[in-house]
Amino acid sequence: MLKKKSTIITILLALVAMTGQAFQYRIVGNIGTNDFTGWLYLMNQSNKPYSDVDSLWVENGEICDFEGYAQEPFLALLHSKGKPIVQFPCLFVEEGTVRFRPAAMTTIGAAYMGTPLNDEWSSFYSQFNTIEVATDEGRITQTEARQKLDSLATPFVIKHHNDVLGAVIISFLEDLGNERLMEYIKMLSPKQQSFPFIQDVSQTILALQQTSVGAMFKDFAVKYNGKTVRLSDYVGHGQYVLADFWASWCGPCLREMPNIIAVHNKYKDCGLNVLGVAVWEEAEESMKVIEEKKIPYPQILNVSEEITGIYGIDGIPHIILFAPDGTILARGLRGKDIEKKLAEIFNDK
């Protein structure tokens, strides 16, 4: 099978060479899951519709000899097509040898090294994650976090305004606000402004504008286990609702949960309902965390990207506070800011 695939690649290289300058890339290393043997698939995420462009054979966690060819660098997702293994996002395919460095999902996207874009991304994300953790732990305020993030991102985007890395970094800057995001997008070259992630960011900004503080909530429905559950089953019924959008694989989400559980216990008899909204994964994975952590408040499971897109959510955890009438009181709450906002409301009462 490997020999046959190699022959196909040789033919593809010849075809690519006819239309432009091709480069060779290699992906090597151990994926950190030693009991996995099978194919991993390389999905090109620089153009829509996203599609698998190659595959890598993995033996006991070790990537076997692999080389591929492309015309220009692209952003890729390495995945296993439904087998029980995590996905590995933010792989920059470019000329040279990319080495896989096993990384927990709490450092999502920082798992590759060895080529310029991957090393730059690893540097950015490491610093980005440091800011996220400091915010989660309450060591810095959200205002301080935004200032640090802005200072971190600016030189990276200026340097990479004409390649895929600049566009990807901008997709991580939601917390800076719509106006600043648009300023960043304008820093990019016209080609990178058409990058799918940037188009998604533009759509996200529109959704955020439509679901900003003061706007009425937008309802959605999810079918799971033969039942249809709606956000309106919980919101708009005369009580405050704190909705936590989360996933089991999201480290910051798991670190935030003790704060959510604490405010649930403190204010549940004062007029606050807490609601979990598990997103971007199979419901069974969400249920494992719910049971392990004994989460006491109700959950909406099996929520897709289409639904989170209604609220412009492209990063989690994302926490929204709804007023008793269903209007949005606050969104993007994290850490100590959750308790601070609720104390303002319930202490007044």
Overall 3D shape: globular
Task: Provide the residue-averaged pLDDT.
Answer: 88
Distance between the termini: 70 Å
String of helices and strands:
HEEEEEEEEEHHHHHHEEEHEHEHEEH
Secondary structural class: alpha+beta
The low-confidence runs, each spanning 5 or more residues with pLDDT under 50, are 1-19, 104-109
In angstroms, what is the radius of gyration? 22 Å
Strand content: 15-25%
Largest sheet: 5 strands, antiparallel
Please give a quick description of this structure.
The protein is α+β, with helices and mostly antiparallel strands and 349 residues long. Helix content is 39%, strand content 24%. Residues 1-19 and 104-109 have low confidence and may be disordered.
What do these coordinates show?
With 349 residues, the protein is an alpha+beta fold. It contains 11 helices and 16 strands. The strands form 4 sheets. A 5-stranded antiparallel β-sheet has the order 4-3-2-6-7. Strands 14-13-12-15-16 form a 5-stranded mixed β-sheet. Strands 5-1-8-9 form a 4-stranded mixed β-sheet. A hairpin with an 8-residue loop joins β6 and β7. α5 packs antiparallel against α7 and α8 runs parallel beside α11. The longest helix has 21 residues. The termini are far apart. The N terminus is likely disordered.
